[in-house]
């Protein structure tokens, strides 16, 4: 995957690296707020849960942790991304703040299926990291956990790094989408 600028977007619509970072920061803040809510709920519910037995982690406990983490964190994040990027504004809160939007590779509005694909690939990187972290935290399947964490990191980098040099990440290439500056943002920059 070359890291050359995105040839599908006119130069006036290619996002600047700082705009991409700004959009990520606000979206990570949204995720952090959701995780904060989950932490408060978890702390409040903890006394109501039965205390676990110390000892070896069972496969059932590991799979239960995987499912709970996926349902509580990954699925809400995926829905946030898909619902906001397939809306008429075609942008998450972070992209809106940075003056960016998601488009099909030809610049038209992306179809909902493409928005799902681009975000499933992005969220897969996060999910692989969770699976790796859980295995390390529970001290079971450590080798697999390291492999999952490395795979998640590499996928995340394949999504993010090309975007920082004006290109399309692997998720956008596979989905046939791109991130571009909104028309008002492109006019303001004088491009």
Automatic annotation (TrEMBL):
Residues 16-176 form the RDD domain. It is found in: Cell membrane. The chain crosses the membrane at residues 28-49, 61-83, 142-165. One of its GO terms (cellular component) is plasma membrane. Keywords: Cell membrane, Membrane, Transmembrane, Transmembrane helix. The keyword RNA-binding does not apply. It comes from the Bacteria. It is a multi-pass membrane protein. This is RDD family protein. It comes from Ornithinimicrobium pratense.
